[in-house]
Specification:
The protein has 2 domains: 56 residues, no CATH class; 227 residues, Sandwich (Protocatechuate 3,4-Dioxygenase, subunit A), CATH 2.60.130. The strands form 3 sheets. A 5-stranded mixed sheet has the order 3-2-7-8-9, with no helix packed on it. Strands 1, 4, 10 and 11 form a 4-stranded mixed sheet that branches. By secondary structure, the chain is of the alpha/beta class.
C-alpha cells in the first residue's frame, strides 16, 4: 500500500529543474488578488529566471549578489539612500522617468532624477531670497525663470522646490549636521508665474563611493561623476508635478553622466551681463518650466527623502 501511494505521488509531482522552475513559481503566485502586483511579480520572476539561465549563474555568484544587496540596504540611513543610488547608476531611475513622461497628456519640461539627496520640508523663502546659509566661496548667481502651462500662460503661485550641491560638489547632507539645511529652498511663483532667487553656481561631483555602489562603479571602470546641476520639483493645483534638473553647459561630464540624468533640453549656462535679470549685477541662470495638465496617474518622483523611506520600513 505504501509503495503504491509513493508511486502515485511521484506520478503527480512536478519535476523541478532549470526549465520547469519558472512555471512552478508562477503557478504558486497565481492566487495573488491584486492584479498589478500579480503582473509585476510574474514579470520580475520570469526575467530573474531568464537572467540566471542566460549567464549560467553559479552558487558563488548568487551569494555574492545577496551580499551586495544586503550591503546596499545596510548603507541606507535617514540621510542616505544607497538603493536609489543603485537604481540611478543602473539607469533604472532614468528609464522610469522616461516611462512617466510618456504617459503625460500634454507636453511639459522633461523629467530628470530626484537623486538620493532630496529632503522634504526645505525652508519656505520669499522671491529674491538666497538659499545659501553657510559660508561659501562659490560664484553667486541669480536663478530665475517662469513656470507656464502648455498654452504659454504663467502659472501663479506654483511651488518651486530647489536643491543643489555647493561649489565643491557637496550637498549639505555630506558636510553638515543633517538637521541644518543649506542650498535648499521652497518658493512660490508670482501672479505671472515668475520666480527668482539667489544661489551659487554648483560644481559637478563624484557620487558617494564609500559604499557598495561605489565598489560596483570602480569594478566597472566608470568615472563616477555627475555634471554640475540644480534640482527642481515644481507643482501647482491642476497640473502634473514636474521633477527635473538643470545641467550646466561646459561641464566635462555633460555627455557621460554616471546616473544618466542629462538630456539636451535641460542644459543651460551661466550668463554674464543679462539685461533681463531681476537681480542686477549678478551672473544668471535662466530657465522656463512648463507644467502639463494633471493626469490620473500617480507621482512622478523617482526618489524620496531618505528619512521617509526609513520611516516606512520601520513602521
Amino acid at each position: 500500500m505504501t509503495r503504491d501511494l509513493t508511486v502515485t505521488m511521484e506520478a503527480h509531482m512536478r519535476a523541478i529543474d532549470e526549465h520547469t522552475i519558472t512555471e512552478a513559481a508562477l503557478d504558486q503566485m497565481a492566487s495573488t488578488t491584486d492584479p498589478r502586483l500579480k503582473e509585476i511579480m510574474a514579470a520580475l520572476t520570469r526575467h530573474l529566471h531568464d537572467f540566471a539561465r542566460e549567464v549560467d549563474l553559479t552558487p558563488e555568484e548568487w551569494l555574492e549578489g545577496i551580499k551586495f544587496l544586503t550591503a546596499v540596504g545596510q548603507k541606507c540611513t535617514a540621510y542616505r539612500q544607497e538603493f536609489i543610488l543603485l537604481s540611478d547608476t543602473l539607469g533604472l531611475s532614468s528609464l522610469v522617468n522616461a516611462l512617466h513622461d510618456r504617459r503625460a497628456t500634454e507636453a511639459g519640461t522633461k523629467s530628470s532624477l530626484v537623486g538620493p539627496f532630496y529632503r522634504q520640508d526645505s525652508p519656505v523663502l520669499k522671491l529674491g531670497d538666497t538659499i545659501v546659509t553657510k559660508p561659501t566661496n562659490g560664484l553667486e548667481v541669480c536663478l530665475y525663470g517662469r513656470v507656464t502651462n502648455s498654452a504659454g500662460q504663467g502659472v501663479p503661485h506654483a511651488t518651486v522646490q530647489v536643491w543643489q550641491p555647493d561649489e565643491t560638489g557637496n550637498y549639505d547632507l555630506q558636510k553638515h549636521d543633517p538637521s541644518e539645511m543649506d542650498l535648499r529652498g521652497t518658493f512660490r511663483t508670482d501672479a505671472d508665474g515668475r520666480f527668482y532667487l539667489r544661489t551659487i553656481a554648483p560644481l559637478g561631483y563624484m557620487i558617494p563611493m564609500d559604499g557598495p555602489v561605489g565598489d560596483m562603479i570602480r569594478a566597472q571602470k566608470r568615472h563616477g561623476y555627475r555634471p554640475a546641476h540644480i534640482h527642481f520639483i515644481i507643482g501647482a493645483e491642476g497640473y502634473r508635478e514636474v521633477v527635473t534638473a538643470l545641467y550646466l553647459q561646459g561641464d566635462e561630464h555633460i555627455d557621460s553622466d554616471t546616473v544618466f540624468g542629462v538630456t539636451a533640453s535641460l542644459v543651460t549656462d551661466v550668463r554674464k551681463n543679462d539685461p533681463s535679470s531681476p537681480i542686477p549685477n549678478l551672473p544668471t541662470i535662466k530657465f522656463d518650466f512648463q507644467l502639463p495638465a494633471a493626469a490620473a496617474y500617480g507621482s512622478g518622483r523617482v526618489g524620496a527623502d531618505p528619512s521617509q523611506i526609513v520611516a516606512k520600513v520601520a513602521s
